[in-house]
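in:
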């Protein structure tokens, strides 16, 4: 069976979640599952959409104030619907091209933006209804765009997100609480002994380790947090992972700090780094939080993108897994307090593990496969009934 995953590189989480589910489909069903991942902004091939992934870091800059204003102004289902219909004449032909070039038994959206357009494109250009599914990737504060009506299944990570879906008019039987999809490597590593993880990474075995991250893009005031903590002379090994932010990596490598600092750029074994850590200092990105919950880490949260990540902060703090410390000095003080209180660290670690949903990616993959089976049996495996026998030759303008 063939599956089309829609995502965009607006931040690293959409691609990472889609890849985690794709890998589970491959693990569970082998070559029988064929997944095509499409960055829909780029695939539309029209200005300004092709530039949005590149613009995203600037869009959430300036402490996220412009982004937060735009988020809250548009977070209404009637307005999202109106804007989607307004843009439809401009995006209809490119969206049709995406669907025809990627015929699938199931289409899955891992992004909030295309969901109204996906529904309209499916209903207008596909001869019979192909199942569509939305995998929402915000823990609590979920924008109304995620919950465009008319899709077959909506997967959400928390009960709070489910309540948001119901408030947007989605039927309760169409909403499933499964969790945030994380790479299987995190599931495998959750029982990895800390000593073994540190040995793999060449870290001291006895000294506490504080891991500082800013998501895959190294976003937020990460450098200021690192410097503020170093000025406190913590009795701990400090490790910072800057992700794809090469400029930040070079700045921290050259920084003259009063304590040793290990600096890493993008790593492919984050699950091992998390298992080696005693405390995680991070922005409140949903993917990082979901991975930290699986690893059972106490959290110090120093930043959150206004709007979509506000609820992540309250979710972690209210459940006892994290501390909100939005100023670099506050973050440093919070880390120092946790380093001095091992009992509290253990308590927070237990709360973090209680929030984990390590099997989310597998369960989502199984639901996608089930939707595929239903459409496959209905049409006897003949996708030409969806797209037309000459769909790849369809003229676009």
């Amino acid at each position: 069976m063939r599956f089309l995953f829609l995502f965009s590189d607006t931040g690293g989480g959409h691609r990472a979640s889609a890849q985690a589910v794709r890998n589970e489909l491959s693990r569970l069903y082998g070559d029988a599952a064929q997944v095509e991942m499409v960055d829909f902004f780029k695939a539309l091939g029209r200005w300004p959409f092709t530039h949005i992934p590149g613009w995203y870091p600037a869009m959430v800059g300036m402490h996220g104030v412009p982004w937060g204003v735009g988020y809250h102004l548009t977070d209404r289902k009637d307005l999202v619907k109106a804007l989607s219909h307004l843009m439809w004449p401009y995006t209809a032909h490119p969206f049709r091209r995406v669907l025809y070039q990627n015929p699938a038994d199931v289409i899955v959206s891992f992004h909030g933006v295309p969901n109204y357009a996906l529904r309209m494109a499916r209903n207008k250009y596909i001869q019979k209804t192909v199942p569509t599914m939305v995998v929402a990737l915000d823990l609590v504060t979920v924008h109304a765009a995620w919950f465009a009506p008319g899709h077959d299944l909506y997967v959400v990570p928390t009960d709070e997100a489910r309540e948001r879906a119901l408030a947007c008019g989605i039927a309760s039987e169409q909403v499933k609480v499964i969790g945030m999809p994380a790479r299987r490597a995190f599931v495998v590593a959750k029982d990895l002994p800390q000593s073994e993880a540190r040995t793999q990474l060449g870290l001291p075995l006895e000294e506490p380790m504080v891991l500082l991250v800013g998501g895959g893009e190294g976003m937020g005031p990460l450098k200021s947090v690192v410097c503020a903590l170093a000025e406190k002379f913590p009795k701990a090994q400090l490790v910072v992972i800057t992700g794809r932010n090469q400029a930040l990596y070079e700045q921290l490598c050259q920084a003259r700090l009063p304590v040793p600092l290990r600096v890493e750029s993008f790593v492919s074994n984050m699950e091992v780094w998390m298992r080696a850590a005693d405390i995680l200092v991070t922005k409140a990105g949903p993917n990082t939080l979901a991975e930290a919950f699986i690893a059972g880490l106490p959290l110090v949260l120093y930043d959150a993108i206004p709007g979509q990540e506000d609820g992540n902060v309250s979710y972690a703090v209210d459940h006892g897994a994290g501390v909100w410390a939005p100023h670099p000095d506050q973050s440093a003080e919070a880390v120092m307090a946790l380093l001095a209180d091992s009992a509290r660290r253990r308590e927070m670690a237990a709360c973090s593990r209680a929030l984990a949903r390590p099997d989310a990616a597998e369960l989502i993959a199984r639901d996608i496969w089930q939707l595929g089976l239903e459409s496959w049996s209905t049409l006897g495996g003949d996708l030409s009934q969806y797209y037309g026998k000459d769909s790849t030759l369809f003229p676009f303008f």
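note: The CA atoms of residues 43 and 395 lie 16 Å apart.
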